[in-house]
Amino acid sequence: MSKLVRVFSGIQPTGVPQLGNYLGSLKNWVAMQNSGQYGELFYSVVDLHALTVPRDPRVLRQETMEMAAAIIACGVDPKRSVLFRQSAVPAHTQLLWTLGCITPVGWLNRMTQWKTKLQSQNEAANLNAQAAQGLLAGLLTYPVLMAADILLYRATHIPVGEDQVQHLEFARDLALHFNKTYGQKMFPPPQSILTPSKRIMSLKDPLRKMSKSDPNEMSRITLSDSDDEIRKKIK
Questions:
Q1: pLDDT tens, position by position, 117-157
Q2: E-strand spans in 93-203?
Q3: Does residue 209 have an active-site annotation?
Q4: Catalytic annotation on 235?
Q5: What is the end-to-end Cα distance of the chain in Å, rounded?
Q6: Main-chain dihedrals φ then ψ at residue 53, nearest 5 degrees
Q7: Active-site residue, 115 included
Q8: Which of 117, 185, 204, 235 is catalytic?
C-alpha cells in the first residue's frame, strides 16, 4: 500500500480493554503498524466521545491512563505510531463546530445509534420533541465529532468493523459536502479498511455486544482477567 496512506483510529477510554476491544481494534492497530504498509498511523484515546453520558472526571482520567497503558502493552509503539489523547488537541472540537454548522439534521436523524436510543424509550424512531425529550444532544452530534476526528488529520483510510460502516459513510459524505460548500478539496473522502474480526458478543446476552458499560462483569472478558476468572466466566 502507498506510503501516502494515512490511517486514523480511535478507542474510548474504558479502562482495561475487554476482549472485543482487543480483537476489534488493538490487535489490528498493532498489525497495521508492524506491516509497514501504511505511511502514517494516528491512534487516539477518544475521551471526548466518552462524555455522551455524564462521567466522574477522576474515573475518566484514570480509565484514560489505563487504556493508554493497555494500548502500549498490546504492542503499539509510540515511536512508530502517533498515540494521543483526543481532548489534548483542541482542533477536534473546533472542527466539530465548523462541520456541525453545515451538517443537515436529517443526516444525524438517520444514524442507527440515535434511532436505537429513541426506540429504547419505546418511541417512534424519528426526531421529534416527544421521542427525543430525554436524550442528550451529544449523542445526536456524536457522528460529527467522529467525522472531525478523521478529517482533521486528512486520514485516507479508516479501520472499521461492520457496526461502524455507517459512521464512516457519514464522514465521507460530510467531507464531500464541505468541499462542495466551500469550493475546494480540503478533505479527502476516507476509505474503509474492514477489520477481519466480527462483533464479539456478551457472554450473558448473545444479542448484545460485549461492553464495559454492562454492569454485569460476568458478561465480558478483560485483558487483565486471570485464567481462573476466564474459565469461571465462560462455564
A1: 777 654 444 445 554 566 788 989 999 999 999 999 999 99
A2: 157-160, 191-194
A3: yes
A4: no
A5: 43
A6: -125, 150
A7: no
A8: 117
DSSP assignment of 181-216: HHTS--SPPPEEEE-S--PPBPSS-TTSB--TTSS-
Judge whether 94 and 123 are in contact, CB under 8 Å: no
Structure confidence by residue, pLDDT tens digits, 145-201: 999 999 999 999 999 988 889 999 999 999 999 999 999 999 999 999 988 877 889
pTM: 0.89
Report the run of H or E that residue 81 belongs to, with start and end: none
Residue 221 CB partners (closer than 8 Å, separation 6+)? 18, 19, 203, 210, 230, 233, 234
For 207, phi then psi, to 5°, come to -95, -5
Q: Which of 209, 232, 233, 235 does the annotation list as catalytic?
A: 209
Catalytic residue among 180, 185, 198, 212: 212
